């Protein structure tokens, strides 16, 4: 777990990064949560009418829901106008990613300065679940709507593969994306910068079939055990363990790199950890990954709060987030396991990749 008083400038790239250059980044808040910040332990939203279930819907089906789009754009606009060091500001919301993914904190209790990094390990899904959870609740709070839910980028379905149109305009747009990958190009879940920037993209139908087959592999045939799906078991004191779960590798990494601007050395925004969450589509990408985690659990028979690993070193690992009241909250991995207790759900869609056994 991180030691909050250790935030320090760090490198824009982690050791396994596909990028050839790196630079120093400082993602720490200007006035850090040092001294004795008041921290409360996470509490589940109460299952009452006071906290209605938020239903996350597929982004590509929301293009005509003008009422919803107005709300979502308004909430993001408010975030972008907050003073940059307010914990709810767009700036600080996106810096959370840089802090936790580029190792800006050292681990609590470690003998030496060991960076705390959540990628390429079993912390990947739980950390991002809470990141999206608090971001969504803050957006809702800013517009006074406690039913507000983020959309998910349903790229595991043929109609949902391009960057969703709603992210191509207004507050949800980001200039720093690969121009050759804008709609209607379907995402390339097999994307790797080295291989694919040199060649023409395959026809859409071919790419769609490749995507579905790879999803089958990473969600089903190659992900039969939690070790394969969740990633390696990062232990306290370990700097990294470099064992990505199947879905973290693809679609997670591949979609990030595919969206990012390939003509900059580090593929900003989406294609690099320190900048990825500056692009609003980041949150739709991670909502879908969060959903895929829930789908995988269902397919594998993990119900309710049954954890993938009954291991206190995992279950008691924790992270800190500001909640919708701007209180600093400590969340544990064990609080992330049972999605139903968190007051949100995903609108169900077909899973065409289940039939795409190569
Ligand atoms: Cu922490 Cu999509 O990355």
UniProtKB/TrEMBL annotation:
UniProt keyword annotation of Disulfide bond present: yes
GO MF terms held by the record: catechol oxidase activity; metal ion binding
Key word Nuclease present: no
Name used for this protein in its record: Polyphenol oxidase, chloroplastic
Cofactor requirements of the protein: Cu(2+)
Compositionally biased region (Polar residues): 6-15
Domain Tyrosinase copper-binding: 119-136, 279-290
Region Disordered: start-end pairs: 6-30
Family, per entry: Belongs to the tyrosinase family.
Keywords: Copper, Disulfide bond, Membrane, Metal-binding, Oxidoreductase, Thioether bond, Transmembrane, Transmembrane helix
């Amino acid at each position: 777990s991180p030691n909050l008083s250790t935030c320090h400038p760090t490198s824009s790239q982690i050791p396994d990064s596909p990028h050839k250059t790196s630079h120093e980044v400082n993602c720490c808040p200007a006035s850090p949560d040092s001294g004795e910040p008041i921290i409360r332990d996470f509490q589940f939203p109460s299952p009452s009418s006071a906290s209605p279930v938020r239903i996350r819907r597929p982004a590509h089906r929301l293009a005509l829901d003008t009422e919803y789009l107005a709300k979502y754009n308004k909430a993001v606009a408010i975030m972008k106008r907050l003073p940059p060091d307010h914990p709810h500001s767009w700036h600080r919301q996106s810096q959370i990613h840089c802090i936790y993914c580029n190792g800006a904190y050292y681990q609590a209790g470690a003998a030496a300065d060991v960076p705390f990094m959540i990628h390429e390990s079993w912390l990947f899904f739980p950390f991002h679940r809470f990141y999206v959870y608090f971001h969504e609740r803050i957006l809702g709070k800013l517009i006074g709507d406690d039913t507000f839910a983020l959309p998910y980028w349903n790229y595991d379905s043929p109609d949902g593969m391009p960057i969703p149109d709603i992210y191509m305009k207004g507050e949800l747009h980001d200039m720093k994306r690969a121009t050759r990958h804008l709609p209607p190009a379907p995402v390339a879940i097999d994307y790797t910068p080295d291989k694919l920037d040199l060649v023409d993209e395959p026809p859409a139908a071919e790419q769609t079939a490749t995507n579905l087959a790879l999803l089958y592999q990473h969600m089903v045939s190659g992900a039969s055990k939690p070790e394969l799906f969740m990633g390696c078991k990062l232990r306290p004191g370990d700097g990294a363990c470099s064992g990505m779960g199947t879905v973290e590798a693809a679609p997670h990494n591949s979609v990030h790199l595919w969206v990012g601007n390939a003509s900059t050395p580090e593929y900003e925004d989406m294609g690099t950890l320190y900048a990825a969450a500056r692009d609003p589509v980041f949150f739709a990408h991670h909502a879908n990954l969060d959903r895929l985690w829930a789908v995988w659990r269902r397919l594998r028979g993990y119900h309710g709060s049954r954890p993938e690993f009954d291991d206190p070193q995992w279950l008691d690992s924790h992270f800190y987030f500001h909640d919708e009241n701007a209180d600093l909250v400590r969340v544990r991995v064990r609080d992330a396991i049972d999605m139903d207790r968190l007051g949100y759900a995903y609108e169900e869609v077909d899973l065409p990749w289940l039939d795409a056994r190569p």
